[in-house]
Amino acid sequence: MKIIHYDKKSGDMKLSVETLDDLWMLKDIVQKGDVIKGSTVRSIEMSGKKERRKIFVVLEAEKSSFGSGELRIQGLIKDASEDIPHGHHTFEVRVGDTFTLVHNWKDYEVERIRSSSHKINPILVCVLDDDECDVFEVSTRIERLAHFTGSSGKMYASDNEKYYKDIVNFLNSSDIEIAAIVGPGFAKERVYKGLEKKKYIDSVSSTGIVGLNEAIRRGILKSVMRDSEISKDTDLIEKFFTELKKDGLVVYGRDETLRALDNGAVEMLLISDKILRENEDVLEKAKQMRTKIHIISSKHPSGEQFYNFGGIGGFLRFKL
């Protein structure tokens, strides 16, 4: 998401939406009472007939929802470019739209939006063996795009030819330009040879989401996703749990983390994006103590694991 203009004093921020992830982020940010300014479509009665017109509105938000590729902000029209009743309206925001959000911006929210403007090119990750294959799109989050089932054994050899052909055709037809093929055994090589795009190949011991997680943990995707937040998140969470197992320099849980912050012991605060709103005091304390803050996305398995563990913790400078 791109910030076109930001006035800290008034809270006006003009935004350009670049990805579906931007809409998901905005759903978390938009609060009741915020003001949205922008172009929208509304039914207007003209000469006894209803006509859909594009108008400019100022809307006071009541609630928002995300789905079907759009963010829907429901609220009351406070002003408009046409002489229309100032009733309830749903302001729809899609990828490519530009609008202004007037909001009581927190520093971490502004930083999240600025960080999101660094576009991450998605890659295809194909995890397979002779029996099954899953294709994922990996960027700031993970999405399963397809599942294929093969048949093992000599009597099913002809069926498996179709299995591999279907996988290759699916990968080649995708607009995503880079693919990583991983898995146990030699099945991955048959798919790798048929690809007509930039490609990488490596071994993991499992298939499915377990194999994908292994690929991420081992760093196979780092050469493909050098700037990806998902790799950074995974590395930090892996390090966090490794330190935790040996009773090392980490802290977890809201109360213990706050105590460590008060003592100046936290070098880096880790916090799940799912619990930011209810832990703004923790973020403010970290800011006061000049502690590094890293927001962990919950849209990938490692981030979900961290959230299920409590979603808040950090690396320590020294043991308390």
Uncertain regions: pLDDT < 50 for 5+ in a row?
Answer: 154-158
Oligomeric assembly: single chain
Strand count, sense and barrel status of the largest sheet are: 7 strands, antiparallel
Mean pLDDT: 87
What spatial form do the alpha-carbon principal axes imply?
Answer: flat
Query: How many helical elements?
Result: 9
CATH topology of the largest domain, by name, is SH3 type barrels
From the alpha carbons, calculate the radius of gyration and give it in angstroms.
24 Å
Range of helix content: 25-40%
Structural class: alpha+beta
Reading side by side through the largest sheet, how are the strands ordered?
Answer: 1-2-7-3-4-5-6
Termini separation (Å)?
40 Å
Q: Give the SSE order as H and E letters.
A: EEHEEEEEHEEEHEHEHHEHEHEHE
DSSP, total strands: 16
CATH class of the largest domain: Mainly Beta
The CATH H-level homologous superfamily of the largest domain: Pelota, domain A
Number of domains: 3
CATH architecture of the largest domain: Roll
As a percent range, the share of strand residues is 35-45%
What's this, in brief?
The protein is of the alpha+beta class and 320 residues long.
Descriptive notes:
The protein is built from nine helices and 16 strands. It is an alpha+beta fold and 320 residues long. It has three domains: 2-116, Pelota, domain A (SH3 type barrels, Roll); 123-218, eRF1 domain 2 (Nucleotidyltransferase, domain 5); 229-316, Ribosomal protein L30/S12 (60s Ribosomal Protein L30, Chain: A). Strands 1-2-7-3-4-5-6 form a seven-stranded antiparallel sheet. Strand 11 (178-182), helix 4 (187-194) and strand 12 form a beta-alpha-beta unit.
